[in-house]
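Page header: ASSEMBLY MODEL / two components / 727 residues total.
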Amino acid sequence: MHQLAPQHAGEFGKTMRVLVIEDDRETAQFLQRSLKENGHMADVAGDGETGLALAREGGWDVLIVDRMLPRLDGLSLISTLRAEGARTPVLILSALGEVDDRVRGLRAGGDDYLTKPYAYTELLARIEALARRPTPEEQVTRYAVGDLTLDRLSHKVARAGQAIILQPREFRLLEYLMRNAGQVVTRTMLLQNVWDYYFDPQTNVIDVHISRLRGKIDKGFAKPLLHTVRGSGYMIRDGAD
Amino acid sequence: MTAPTRLIASTPFRIVVAYLGAFILAAALIVGFVAWRANELLTANAVEALAAEVSSLNEHLQSGGPPALATVINDRIAEPGSNLYLLSDSGGRRIVGNLSVMPRDMSVGGAGHVFKYKRASDGPSGRDRLAVAVARSVQGGLTLVVGRDVEDQRRFASTIGYVAFWGVGLLAAIGVVAGVLISRSMLKRIDAVTETSRRIMSGDLSRRIPLDGSGDEIDRLSVSLNAMLGRIEELMLALREVSDNIAHDLKTPLTRLRSRAEAALRETGDEGHLRDALAKTMDEADELMKTFNALLLIARLEGGAVAESMQPTDLAVIIGDVAELYEPVAEEAGLSLRVSARESLVLIANRELISQAVANLVDNAIKYGSRESPAGQAAGLAVDIGIEIRGNSVAIIVADHGPGVAPEDRERALQRFVRLEKSRSRPGAGLGLSLVAAVARLHGGSVRLEDNAPGLRAVIEMPMVRQALASDAASVARLQRSPEPA
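Prediction written out in full:
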């Protein structure tokens, strides 16, 4: 297996400026410390009003907003920011995980929604994906990782010039992985973005899909591109192990 | 509050008293008016008769002069129960008659005059009697007074008044007594409700309000209150069950997780080992989260929280997607996944929840569908997923060809935390089917486990009722219109 130890994401991606708006001090400090260890810069706001004021100053790559905050609740904060035209990606943290709550969160202007309790690796993977998410103007039509290419328009995938036939879902899976190339993508992120499911299947169905995909894109090639990141998920990247 | 004060303060008593007061007032007005009118009428009659008598006597006077008149008057006086007469001269002295003197204040030629007199036969100590009379001047400066004794009429009227007074008094007394009795019985029933609610508040949730079987409004109120209490008790039991289950199902893996961390901490040695232990700990924590989330979701669904995000959903697409998700897993387990639902079938449903329910069933079918298969070979066995329309309902069917579930275990298998195999090693397992059941109930349906001969057929049956869809659509619309709650 091509396994990687959990990596400092900062080594792969750029340094992010993260604003953590969270009233639980311990959680906020843990996030701040962990993000710094991963090579990012993080500031903390302990209530909604302070958070809004800091967010308005701008310059953030991503905001992490708790849904229930003192003084100004998370959803109002986000809708206020959005109404003012701010487009900074927002990850909502919430103890409420029902479908309806998530829908409300996203409707208020959140870009992603993570239910407490969450794994830090999950949160990290998500904010990195958010910060690197291309704006509509810079939509890429062709992805390339090493000698693997994917054309979003013609739906053609090739490795070292050799065409690879993928099922539609496998194509979307690879597309999502390649869009986040060099970054950890968790199983939950794959389930949500490729299958649009927000529940955890009892069996690790994603692993089997990944191993199938791996059989198609990595099998017979000297250098594997699709890696398993222990305890987190998967990553597609071109580079030495 | 003491018992009598409580009684007086009670609503029925107040109503009875108010009603009684209004009734007595109305009765007094009616009786008074009738008495007054009757008296008026009788007096008018008497005055008319007296006027006729005066003119008759006047004729006697004109034909025979005063002596003839006196004879006639004396004759009349002799008759029993006669009228009152007085013929006096211009000086006011009596010529003839049974009245000794003309009543005071009586004007000659006026209307009927009511006065009191003493009857000669009663003697000087006799009672005053009531009479009405008219006085007329007749020929020769004489004055003729003709009166009639109306003492009997007065007595009758006063008897009526007396009877009316005591009748109303009796009525009031009976009313008050009835009021007390009605209030007491009402109070008793209301007290039963109060007492029941007090008992329930102090923790005895099994209490119910007693019914008296009359089917009246209090009985009907009690029935619906009892139904509400039943639902509350059900929810409380479910809540208790959830907390019991959380304690039960989360304690074991939590203990395991802690022991593993503790063991790793004790161990000195290479980093790889520690890393390994940590990774396992994290895996276990993830599984715990899954169990926890499943528990919360089931509790929320069973609490009757109607998922607002119900919308038209194609069941065939749901099934196709879930099958596609599980197809590689099935293949690895040596099973083939067959989908027999090609036609679209749109239902108002929660896509996420139905997907999760179907995924759980498929998951189970793959896990148990291959094991201990009849010929000992798993390969070639199929898991069938399909949709059937059964009358007014739609059934999602997931069938395997594994060992199946014994008929006596099927009902139990749908309950939370029941795992038919004894091992409890896999966290979260045992919640799958109860989640399916909760999702089905949320959609107004149910789950059944049937014999697939061989194997197990799990059937989610949901109604396709129009009204239910309309109300769900309405709640979706409401959700879309309403501002987001904080």
